[in-house]
Amino acid sequence: MAAAMAWLRRGAYGPVRRCGLAAGRSYSGGGAYPSVSLTCPLPGVPKAVFAAAESRERFETRVTVLENGLRVASQNKFGQFCTVGILVNSGSRHEAKYLSGISHFLEKLAFSSTAQFGSKDEILLTLEKHGGICDCQASRDTIMYAVSADAKGLDTVVNLLADVTLQPRLSDEELEMTRMAIRFELEDLNMRPDPEPLLTEMIHAAAFRDNTVGLNRFCPVENTDKINRDVLHSYLSSYYTPDRMVLAGVGIEHEHLVECARKYLLGVEPVWGSGRGRAVDRSVAQYTGGIIKVEKDMSDVSLGPTPIPELTHIMIGLESCSFLEDDFIPFAVLNMMMGGGGSFSAGGPGKGMFTRLYLNVLNRHHWMYNATSYHHSYEDTGLLCIHASADPKQVREMVEIITREFILMAGAVGEVELERAKTQLKSMLMMNLESRPVIFEDVGRQVLATNTRKLPHELCDLISQVKPTDIKRVVTKMLHKKPAVAALGDLTDLPTYEHIQAALASKDGRLPRLYRLFR
Description:
Layout: H1 2-10, E1 62-65, E2 71-75, E3 81-88, H2 102-109, H3 120-128, E4 133-138, E5 143-150, H4 154-166, H5 172-191, H6 196-207, H7 229-239, E6 245-250, H8 254-265, E7 290-295, E8 312-319, H9 328-338, E9 340-342, H10 356-362, E10 368-377, E11 382-390, H11 395-409, H12 415-432, H13 436-450, H14 456-464, H15 468-478, E12 484-489, H16 497-505
Parallel strand pairs: 2-6, 7-12
Antiparallel strand pairs: 1-2, 3-5, 3-6, 4-5, 8-11, 8-12, 9-10, 10-11
Helix pairs in contact: 2-5, 4-8, 9-12, 9-15, 11-16, 12-14
C-alpha cells in the first residue's frame, strides 16, 4: 500500500514539476522536450472558449395562435435541415357519420396534384431543389402531412403544405389510382406472415365496439368505389378547419414560421368552400370489451426454405387511460416492465431480455413463438394488451399463461425490475428524441391535444417518481374491466370468452377446468 501511495505521489514516470516537464526527457529522435508548463496558457495559442449552458427558453417549444385559430408551434434544433408539417385533428375515429375509410383515402391521396402543382412529380421536383422529402400518415385520431428539407426553403415548404392540405384537386384519375392502391394494401395485409396490424385492428374493434377508436382504420373493400370527390369534400369541410390544425416545425426560427403561416394559411379559402359541413363528432370513447375471432388457415403464410410454422395468434387487452391523465406514466412504465418480443432474439443490453414476458413466458415455455406487450393511448382512453402466438394445439395453455401474467401485474413489484423499466423507458424516450422527425411529431401531437408541450426532462422526472404502489393501483383498477380479445388462426382449442373473463377475475389467473367424458 505504501509503495502504491508513493507511486501516486511520485507519478508513474518519475518526479512531476509544476512548471515544465522533468529534465532529461527527450523525443525518440534525440531532440529534447521543450520546457513548457501545462498549467499555464501556451504561448501563441488562442484562449479556449468553452461551451456554456444557455437559457432554457431557447429550447422550449414556442406556440402562437393565429386569428383564425391555427396553432403554430416550433422547436429549436441545431442543423441545416428542418422538418415542418401540418397535423389535423381528424382520423378514423371521426368517421361515424361518413363512409368508413375516408382517412385511409386521404392518406393515399396526399401530395398529389393541387391548385398550384399539376402533379405529384411537380411537387417532388420542387422539394428536390431543397433536398426535401415528404410523407403523410393517418392514425385513428390524427392526419399528419410532413416535409423534411433545407431550412432555407421554409417559405416554399409552407406554401406547398398549405396547398396540399387546403387545395387538393382530387382528380378522377388520382381517385382511381388510390382505389387500386388500397385494394392492393388490403390484400397484402391479409397475406403477411406478421399479423400484428390485423390483430391491432381487431383488438380495437373488440374493445370499443362500433365507436370512436374502435372504428376501422383501413377502408373496407366495399367502400372503395363509394368514396368520391363529393364525399371527401363533405368530410374535409367539417374537419380540415384552422382551429383543428397545428403547423409544427423543428429546426427553424419561430418568427419565420409564424410569418409563413400568416402568408399561406391565414385567410385562405379551401377548395371545398368556406361553409361548415356536418357537425364535428365529439364522441367520447366507450369501452365495451368483447371478442372478435377470425378463423383462418395460417399453414401457408410463409413458404420457402425456412417457412414460419402454423401459428394461432391471440391478443388480450384491458382499458388503461388517456395520455392526458396522470396514470399514463405508470402505465408506460408497466408496459416497459412487461416488455417481451419474439422467441428468437440476439439478446444484449437494451433488448428487454429481463422483462417479465421474457423471464416468465418465453424463457419457460419453449413452444411460445411470441409474447409482446403493447400500450395504445388516446386523448380519452387507452388499451394495454399482450399479443402471443403458438402452435394451434397449445392455444388453451397459451391463453392461461397470458391471463396469469395480467394477474401477476397486481402483485409485488421488485425494486430492481421497476428501476430497470424506468431507466429503459427514459433511455428509449431520449434516444427517440434524438431524431428530428420524431421531435416534430412529438411537438405537433402534444400541441394539438393540449396546446402546450412537456419537455423531455419533465417526462423523465415524472417517470422517476413512479413507485410500486402506483403500478399496483393502476393494475387493480384495470383488472376490474371486461377484457377485449382478438383471435386469429386455427381456433379449435380457444377457450370461451366467459372462461377468459373468469380467469382474469380469479386470484391466480387460471382458466376454469374442463371435464370431458371422452378425450
